[in-house]
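Incident log, structure service

09:12 report received: a user says their structure output differs between two submissions of the same chain.
09:20 pulled the input from the user's history:
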Amino acid sequence: MRHTVLAALVLALAAATASASEAAPKLILRVDKVTAAIINNRLVVSASGAVDSGGWTMPRLHLKEVRIPESDTEVIEFLATPPAPSTVVVQALLPVQATAVFPLPRYATVQVKVEGQSNAVTVPIATASPAATPAAPR
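09:34 re-ran on a clean worker, output below:
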């Protein structure tokens, strides 16, 4: 009896470990809209796009470490975690959005490129005007 219970526990643990490893984040299907601005000495990027089915979770923007000398573009990947293969989900294009705050980009960086699986959108980095930034308390 103990061996049966132990074997069942080992199999359950192996199944849980296997399904957790399959949930690696992937690029979303399509990027639709991107905004980028310097606000309070930080790069704030917002993006919206679409995934090809339901069940996608944790949409996020990931700064890609690209070391191209004298590049004027920050490259960001739009990632989300897909549903488990055994999960029943709706098969339709569904919207996703994410916003992230990054450190200031390298000198001479003037635009942001957000990559999806089927496309990429490049936008200029806007600088916040003094009227748009909140005043410091006195």
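09:41 both user submissions now match this output. Likely a transient worker issue. Closing.
09:42 reviewer note: The helical segments are 2-21. The first strand starts at residue 26 and ends at 27.
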